[in-house]
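Below is our example:

___
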Amino acid sequence: MAEYPLALYGAFSETVFGGSIAGVIDQAWDMPADQMLQIAREIGAPATGFITGIDEHGVDVRFFSTLTEYPMCGHGTMGLMTWLVERGWFVPDKGSAITTTLRTPAMTSDVEIRLREDGRPEVLLTLVPAVFEPAVLRIDELAVVLGISQEGFRDDLDMKVTITDFRSLLVPIRSVTDLETVTPDFPAITALCQRTSIDTIALFTPVVENSTMIRCREFCPAVGTPESAASGTTNRAISCYLYQAGQLGALQNGKLTLRSEQGHEMGRPSVVMSELLTRNGQAVEVRVGGLATKTIEGKFYLP
């Protein structure tokens, strides 16, 4: 019987019972993709990362939801890199940082690991800025599947679809109160996403107008998770959207840090940090990250 080290983490959370659950399967060197998907379904987390190789320069990984393989996964990276640091890989000195490489079949990204004074690793995944296209959905159609009044949508900001990594519909909402009143119809959202070739629908609103703290909800039934408690790649897209729309205020030396509260309506609060770097008025790099808290560790057994 084969044994694979297994762990579950609450990604983007400092405590248990928060964040988005990320599974980690280690030593999956020769595991076929269909078996990875089968294990991901058995674990049932929004994403499970399978470590297929590792060396002093970085780690090879494949991310799976319960339905499909992801080209990249922000919250999966948080859990996976925290697992590796805890096992002695890529450990910086306390109070300092190192950069290593995360390699998936679709792309390669830098990952910065900062060791806080309390010894916990903070992980930041480097991503290219999001690219957008106009959204073609009608507000009245979207209001029905989200269970929200049409007055809850902002009329001064357009909806857009990000086409980087995932196709996510970004929907600006007027207030935190409007966001909290959303009652999603998940079968209808799934049908809408499949019909319009959208992976997820992300709603967001500033906690305080023109501030760098936002509240976000993301609905993902079309890719296997009804609602995400924390979304790294999606918050990358939201930070780029808000910067392009002039909603983030002044930058300091071409840099701005946006914090996104997510998962509150699910009872799994999280905070996703996005560091936006700009040059000549254009976003050139985004780093998304935070902490991950281990909740379960053991082994996965295969005959």
About this structure: Residues 2-105+292-302 form a domain with the Diaminopimelate Epimerase; Chain A, domain 1 fold (CATH 3.10.310.10). The longest strand covers residues 292-302. The longest helix spans residues 74-86. The radius of gyration is 19 Å.
